Amino acid sequence: MAMLSMPEWTCPAWTQNASLVNTSSTDFIEVWQSRMRALQGSIMVGSLFQVFVGFSGLIGLFMRFIGPLTIAPTIALIGLSLFDSAGTSAGNHWGISSMTTALIILFSQYLRHISVPFPTYSKEKKLHTSRVYIFQILPVLLGITLSWLICYILTVSNVLPTEPDRYGYLARTDLKGDIVSQAPWFSFPYPGQWGMPTVSLAGVVGILAGVISSMIESVGDYHACARLSGAPPPPKHAINRGIGIEGLGCLLAGAWGTGNGTTSYSENVGALGITKVGSRMVIVASGVLMVVMGVFGKVGAIFTTIPSPVVGGMFMVMFGVISAAGVSNLQYADMNSSRNIFIFGFSMFSGLVIPNWIFKNPTAISTGVAEVDQVLQVLLTTSMFVGGFFGFILDNTIPGSKHERGILAWNKAHEDDCSNTLESGEVYNLPFGISSYLSSSSWLRYIPFCPPGESSSLDGCTADTNALEPKQPLGHPEPSQIIIGVAM
Questions:
Q1: Which InterPro entries match (predicted)?
Q2: C or N: which end of the chain has fewer Cβ atoms within 10 Å?
């Protein structure tokens, strides 16, 4: 967003060059490809900073100063800051969006303990039926699919208006039919497909501001993810590794010319809270699915036909769950304390007021240095940064005991989570037995993104590599038995 706000990124007027009207003309192609190359180079350079911060352990060093009064506003503002986009999408047709919301609530809350018989086959029992808690596993997917199908029926029957200026037009499923028809059957992206990436100081500084905000949001996402799935809070080595891997993902994304980086996604955290499914194999399968969608252009294009009211209805549920997960961290702090009430209230309100004012007054920040303006613009329009920053500063500077701040209860909860749910090593160790192989190495403790040896694992937790599988029947996982993959 910082780069897009710069004057040189303003779209040229087509009246100055008639060839820009033709999307297949050489001039038009060069306009957008030159910007893609500049964006590529900036993302690749900016991602190196994130890789350094993560793998060097700098982000983990700050975790000792972070408590409930820092995490709570940061996570809560992830959801609250997106209320406008949720309302905009849902407001395109409140009937469709309300139906989507109602279906997700029905499946995820009221029908979650109802099992559905499915035909299965095994060598022992041959063909038989097994009961699967399908509503608990796929409530969001079922809600979106049913709403999508209903919108399609209303579209082909012309119940929804065909005039673009009429209310409800955006609920039609044929608005992006040309995208499906024009999408290639096969598309193989490769590094440098738009040409050699270019680098500019202004672009790199703008991306760095976004990277800093992204890292702050990711730390909040990691804790929200662990909280919603019943896993232990992520230890420092897992957070270091997660931030570092996100940086590598941004580096690869920039090289392949996607035009954006990769980071933890708040909507996915909300989906985890609704579905109660946090298996890392689900993440792996989702990654394979996205690769397939990227290679087979028609498949990915089909998903663009999902009407925006359906997406808005889903957002209302997802963002609400994320906000509630953030506020739930206050249970560790003494909320009868006027100190804590002030810190949380001021952090939350500042995280809403300041970004809103900056959005309405984009030219208010003028230091005389364009790069500084871009950095401040990005940081001050990121609600999670503003709220988390004030929560961090106030909680660490205003006098208060560890009990009052919630630090003691926070640390005790970490230990309880490790003993009563999943063990820290079980969730956050390196995959494929790498941690066990390296556990005898004395130098491992000096690598900030590697888990410590089994005898000295964080929070008093020990690894139990035999407890990776959920103990409930298929399709009926409990939050206390869900394994997450924050930093695979």
A1: NCS2, Xan_ur_permease
A2: N
